[in-house]
Amino acid sequence: MELFLQQLFNGIMLGSTYAIVAVGLTLVFGILHIPNFAHGHLYMLGAYVAFFLMSMYGLGFWVALLSSMAIMALVGIVLERLAYRPLRNRPHIDSFISAVGALMILETSVIVIWGPQGRRIPNPYPDIVELFGVTMSHQRLLVIMAAVAMILALHFFIKHTTAGATIEAVAQNREGAMLVGIDVNRVSSLTFAISAATAAAAACLVAPIFIISPTMGALLGMKAFVIVILGGLGSIPGAILGGYILGLLEALGGGYLSAAYKDVYAFGALILILSIRPTGLFGKEVS
Fold first, then answer.
1. What's the rounded Cα separation, in Å, for the pair 160 and 182?
2. 3-state SS string over the chain?
3. Residue 107, exposed/middle/buried by CB under 10 A (0-12, 13-18, 19+)?
4. Can you tell me the distance from the alpha carbon of 11 to that of 143, in angstroms, rounded to the nearest whole number?
5. CB burial class (10 A; 0-12, 13-18, 19+) of residue 60?
6. Of all residues in the chain, what percent carry a pLDDT higher than 70?
7. Quick one: pLDDT band at residue 207, thresholds 50, 70, 90?
8. Residue 87, C-beta contacts closer than 8 angstroms, at least 6 positions apart
9. Residue 1 in contact with residue 66, Cβ under 8 Å?
10. 122-128: Cβ within 8 A, 24+ apart
11. pLDDT tens figures, 64-99
12. Would you tell me how many other CB atoms lie within 10 Å of the CB of residue 87?
């Protein structure tokens, strides 16, 4: 029983990270209807920016996290402006190639600047508590609480602010939004900024737990796409639920079966769920 509860806790922590990253990815897809294949590398770069700020300038964890979010928001805007906007009316394969070029630039730049070896960010909250036999570090608890806070804040922003309403309007009908005077380009930039900032926040929160490396964005990006497809393309609730499903599958599968194959569970779940519901958990049929 203690093993189950421990893996359940680990799965919720992993799922919280995945949910934050997948929400940013599905938000961009909802606006541009183009998958941002460089999203995982924005996550990776966010962790390295925080590492740089903490190691070079001695910034505290929270200052580095907020600074990384701000810097990555600017990177997201630049990425949208240079890699996606000029190709908006081109075939999707053009955007795919552009995204591949962007992610290679990001990964290579990190290797050139910080080297290919892994790095570690000091854990600001190393203390551990035990409850019902479950070992929980303060940093892992922080990841869960921060994910809930960010999801609620994002929901409030989209549903109860003017800027959020414009994002929702463009996602529902781009031409209609333009007819009523909404600046679609500005909304696209805003969406990319939010997406990159949330990815950076997720990376900074888990960086003190895991080693960061230039290649960590590729696997995380693939998992984020699995989550978005599981939940239904463009569905924020689906991305959140998909993130927690994947996190729990990895933790429970790693605990009871084999940790060596934990990354395989994501794709197994994708095949199983799509065979039952081809549009994903919250996806809609396209007429």
1. 17
2. CHHHHHHHHHHHHHHHHHHHHHHHHHHHHHHHCCCCCCHHHHHHHHHHHHHHHHHHHCCCHHHHHHHHHHHHHHHHHHHHHHHHHHHCCCCHHHHHHHHHHHHHHHHHHHHHHHCCCCECCCCCCCCEEEECCEEEEHHHHHHHHHHHHHHHHHHHHHHHCHHHHHHHHHHHCHHHHHHCCCCHHHHHHHHHHHHHHHHHHHHHHHCCCCCECCCHHHHHHHHHHHHHHHHCCCCHHHHHHHHHHHHHHHHHHHHHCCHHHHHHHHHHHHHHHHHHCCCCCCCCCCC
3. buried
4. 12
5. exposed
6. 98
7. very high
8. 94, 95, 98
9. no
10. 122/54, 122/61, 122/208, 123/208, 123/209, 124/60, 124/61, 124/208, 125/208
11. 999 999 999 999 999 999 988 888 777 778 888 888
12. 18
Q: Are 20 and 40 in contact (CB under 8 A)?
A: no
CB atoms within 10 A of CB 62: 10
CA distance 182 to 186: 9
| CB-count exposure of residue 1 (10 Å: 0-12, 13-18, 19+) | exposed
**Cβ neighbours of residue 286 closer than 8 Å, sequence gap 6 or more:** none
Q: Tell which residue, 75, 18, 104, has the closest CA to residue 194.
A: 75
pLDDT range class, residue 277, cuts 50, 70, 90: confident
Tokens, residue 223: 């998992």
Among residues 99, 133, 123, the alpha carbon closest in space to that of 29 is found at 99
Token digits for 189? 């930039």
Q: How far apart are alpha carbons 217 and 13 in whole angstroms?
A: 18
Q: How many CB atoms lie within 10 A of CB 252?
A: 18
Q: Quick one: which of 15, 139, 189 has its CA closest to 23? A: 15
Are residues 43 and 25 in contact, defined by beta-carbon separation less than 8 angstroms?
Answer: no
The number of residues making up the chain comes to 287
Tell me the one-letter amino acid at 222: M
